[in-house]
Amino acid sequence: MELGLTGKVAAVAAASRGLGRAVAEALAREGANVAICARNRERVEKAAEEIARATGREVLPVVADVATPEGPAAFVEATVAQFGRLHILFSNAGGPAPGRFDEISEEDWLKGVDLTLLSAIRLTRAALPHIRRQGWGRLIYLTSVSVKQPIDTLVASNVLRPGVVGLAKSLATQLAAEGITVNVVCPGYFRTERVEELAQDLAKRRGISPEEVIAEWEAGIPARRLGNPAELGDFVAFLASERAAYLTGATIQVDGGYVRALM
Ligand code: NAD
Questions:
Q1: Domain annotation covers residue 134
Q2: Ligand 1 midpoint to CA 178 (Å)
Q3: Which range of residues forms the domain containing residue 208?
Q4: Atom of ligand 1 nearest to the CA of 22
Q5: Does some domain include residue 44?
Q6: Whether residue 211 sits in one domain with residue 107
Q7: How many domains, the chain?
Q8: I want to staple 67 with a disulfide (CB 3.0 to 4.6 A). Which of 48, 114, 190, 239 is the partner?
Q9: Are 222 and 239 in the same domain?
Q10: Is the pTM of this model over 0.90?
Q11: Span 228-239, pLDDT tens digits
Q12: Three-class SS of the chain
């Protein structure tokens, strides 16, 4: 299938590793010029170099913290300064503090609002004027299956991520006639560095091995395995493509069947 992404410009936030990086790589492989951001210069530059080498596309590394008021705008402006325009925004950030309600402090809540909710709003505010100028665009928000089925030990995610769905749904209606689609992607369990670290942390606390923790997670997933980040990247490349022009306002889980809800 020809995705029609050649020459398009994408800004992929929080992408020195994990799902963001897999999305950047999938878009670059399909011919897009990609900018990625993260907070650590060395890591973001290394990731950009590796993606460029693997795909043959230009990949711009930008040092930006998306949880700050100025980080999202700095990222978008650097992207447009380099490539001259912008078509695709992939909104992503690290996850908010884990825990049940009693374990989340006032400070964690405030940080979570900046990291999870305001980052999406600020990235959109910075990117939308540029995307509108193209008369064609894609806004894609990474959230979690927690927006469809709350997770007992991730209450901040359950509370803050649905706000991103509200943002996306509002924008989808407003922007459809301008050729801009807006969708939300909800990953289940993917084997990223973060998930490996979570497994190691849980294993230490419970006195079992990380493999046993992962086996427990896999038992709760109908596909009986964690996702490969490239599988999420490929789906996002489709959503970003010309082929998905009539797909907007959707909140779609990519989770091996983990979510049991009807929709
Ligand atoms: P990860 O830790 O492997 O990667 C996160 C990336 O974001 C890194 O490149 C990191 O440098 C960057 N980052 C973090 N905070 C940032 C900030 N403030 N500004 C700029 N860059 C920042 O994590 P991941 O597994 O890829 O997860 C990405 C997002 O998806 C997180 O919000 C996570 O909670 C969510 N999620 C992940 C899974 C999964 O299975 N991996 C499932 C559901 C939801």
A1: yes
A2: 30
A3: 191-226
A4: 26
A5: yes
A6: no
A7: 2
A8: 114
A9: no
A10: yes
A11: 999 999 999 999
A12: CCCCCCCCEEEECCCCCHHHHHHHHHHHHCCCEEEEEECCHHHHHHHHHHHHHHHCCCEEEEECCCCCCCHHHHHHHHHHHHHCCCCEEEECCCCCCCECHHHCCHHHHHHHHHHHHHHHHHHHHHHHHHHHHHCCEEEEEECCHHHCCCCCCEHHHHHHHHHHHHHHHHHHHHHHHHCEEEEEEEECCECCHHHHHHHHHHHHHHCCCHHHHHHHHHHCCCCCCCECHHHHHHHHHHHHCHHHCCCCCCEEEECCCCCCCCC
